[in-house]
């Protein structure tokens, strides 16, 4: 019943930009913390960014801070990731995830942990060429 679907991935040259979108259905979107994760071949799944239920608090991995911006539109049940100044090392499958935890303190500590999240999208591929 719950569905999470990413879109917006593609091929881009280094220095370029992409905007990923994630739509969720079958759940009350505003009740969920959201996160973006990525996984490259041979590497562990990595937390890229997290955002609180209202969108008032955001978190970023050090590797993307200053280049990526996470946002959400609860009226549209949609999560976004604006990616600028892309680098080849950003190449990965990007996943959208929804977590039903309600503690701000816990989310601050654990936003980058996959175990926090209950629902996952199928992923969208981002490839950045040199």
Structural write-up:
With 130 residues, the chain is mainly β. Helix content is 5%, strand content 47%. The chain has one helix and eleven strands; from the N terminus they run βββββββββαββ. Strands 2, 4, 5, 6, 9, 10 and 11 form a seven-stranded mixed beta sheet that branches. The longest helix is centred in the last third of the chain and has 7 residues, at 104-110. The protein is globular and about 40 Å long. It starts with a strand and ends with a strand. The mean pLDDT is 96.
- Termini, distance in Å? 40 Å
What structural category arises from helix and sheet content? mainly beta
Rg computed from alpha carbons, rounded to a whole number of angstroms: 14 Å
Residues in helices, as a percent range: under 10%
The DSSP helix count reads: 1
Mean pLDDT: 96
Beta fraction of the residues?
over 45%
Global geometry: globular
Order of helices and strands: EEEEEEEEEHEE
- pLDDT < 50 runs, ≥5 residues: none
Number of β-strand runs: 11
Outline the biggest β-sheet: 7 strands, mixed
What descriptive keywords fit this protein?
single chain, four-stranded antiparallel beta sheet, seven-stranded mixed beta sheet, 1 helix, mainly beta
Tell me briefly what this model is.
With about 130 residues, the protein is mainly β. The protein is built from 1 helix and 11 strands, in the order E-E-E-E-E-E-E-E-E-H-E-E. It is globular.
List the helices and strands and how they pair.
Layout: E1 3-7, E2 10-13, E3 18-25, E4 33-39, E5 46-51, E6 58-60, E7 68-73, E8 78-83, E9 92-99, H1 104-110, E10 119-120, E11 124-129
Parallel strand pairs: 2-11
Antiparallel strand pairs: 1-3, 3-8, 4-5, 4-9, 5-6, 7-8, 9-10, 9-11
């Amino acid at each position: 019943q719950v569905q999470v679907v990413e879109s917006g991935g593609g091929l881009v040259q280094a220095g370029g930009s992409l905007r990923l979108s994630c739509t969720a259905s079958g759940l009350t979107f505003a009740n969920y913390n959201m996160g973006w994760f990525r996984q490259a071949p041979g590497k562990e799944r990595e937390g890229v960014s997290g955002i609180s239920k209202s969108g008032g608090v955001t978190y970023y991995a050090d590797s993307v801070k200053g280049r990526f911006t996470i946002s959400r539109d609860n009226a549209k049940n949609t999560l976004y990731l604006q990616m600028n100044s892309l680098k080849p090392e950003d190449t990965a499958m990007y996943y959208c995830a929804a977590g039903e935890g309600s503690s701000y303190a816990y989310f601050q500590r654990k936003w980058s942990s996959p175990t926090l999240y209950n629902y996952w999208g199928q992923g969208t591929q981002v490839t950045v060429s040199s």
